[in-house]
Automatic annotation (TrEMBL):
Enzyme class: transferase
Name assigned to this protein: Alpha N-terminal protein methyltransferase 1
Keyword S-adenosyl-L-methionine: yes
Positions that bind S-adenosyl-L-methionine: 79, 84, 159
EC number: 2.1.1.244
Pfam families noted in UniProt: Methyltransf_PK
Domain of life: Eukaryota
Family: Belongs to the methyltransferase superfamily. NTM1 family.
Lineage summary: Eukaryota, Fungi, Dikarya, Basidiomycota, Agaricomycotina
GO cellular component, one term: cytoplasm
This protein's UniProt keywords: Methyltransferase, S-adenosyl-L-methionine, Transferase
Length: 257
């Protein structure tokens, strides 16, 4: 790899703990422009192409008469921050979301946003702890034990957070994530990675760029694919996120099984 420096997860958490727990804070100053909406719409369409059953209306992605899913769809939002992806992407498409976030101020802000969202008719976020909380749509009061709680996830969504892991940690993370997918439907369940990518090396090989400010790596497309291969994952779809402001890294979405 081109970078001689490696990310340190503790340093990364310390950096993000010093940033504002706001849309602008988690998006590097781009929270008030077009980026949040463009990003969310791109993510929803990407997921719908892979999982057309999630569409709530008949469309080109979900033909008329296609049967409804027989179980509730569970998603894991990795590096969830203040709950932006859960609120703007996942809860429009799936039944239940579990958020994973290690930065305490972000968790507190996400919980505050969740309580505010509870007053809306679309969704309700019910349970919280320091680093995770579970979200359910309004009108669903799960019995305990939850019927699907041990059945795995249908979608594991990872966005703008995996650069804080080195390659060995990332391979282990992907292997554990694959094991956490819904076991009775491994052919449909998937992992989505949405991350910045830098250019490949001159020979087309993998390359990375280290940011010592937040202790993270930006990997090239080849570098991401090399890690996917090491983890034993199969790439089923990839797409560049269009419409983002100029001057930013290219952002790519990868769907993996």
């Amino acid at each position: 790899m081109a970078s001689s420096s490696q990310p340190d997860l503790t340093d990364g958490i310390d950096y993000w703990s010093s940033q504002p727990a706001s849309l602008d804070g988690v998006l590097g100053g781009f929270g008030t422009g077009s980026l949040p909406r463009v990003d969310a719409l791109g993510s929803r369409l990407f997921l719908l192409h892979l999982f057309p059953e999630l569409s709530t209306v008949d469309s080109a992605l979900k033909p008329i008469g296609k049967p409804h899913l027989s179980h509730r769809i569970r998603a894991l939002d990795v590096g969830a921050g203040i709950g932006r992806v859960t609120a703007d992407v996942l809860l429009f498409l799936v039944s239940d979301v579990l958020l994973l976030e290690p930065v305490t101020p972000f968790v507190q802000e996400a919980l505050a946003r969740a309580r505010h969202a509870a007053a809306t008719p679309q969704r309700n976020w019910l349970r919280a702890s320091r680093s995770t909380y579970e979200c359910y749509r309004v009108g669903y009061s799960p019995e305990k034990p939850l019927e699907d709680v041990d059945s795995g996830f249908d979608v594991i969504w990872c966005q703008w957070c995996l650069g804080h892991l080195n390659d060995a940690q990332l391979v282990e993370f992907f292997r554990r994530s694959h094991a956490a997918l819904r076991k009775k439907d491994k052919g449909k369940s998937l992992i989505v990675v949405k991350e910045n990518v830098c250019s490949d090396a001159a020979d087309g090989g993998p390359k990375s760029s280290f940011d010592d400010q937040d202790s993270s790596l930006t990997r090239s497309d080849s570098a991401w694919k090399a890690v996917f291969t090491q983890a034993g994952l199969r790439l089923v779809r990839e797409q560049v996120q269009e419409g983002l402001p100029e001057g930013l890294y290219t952002v790519k979405m990868y769907a993996l099984r």
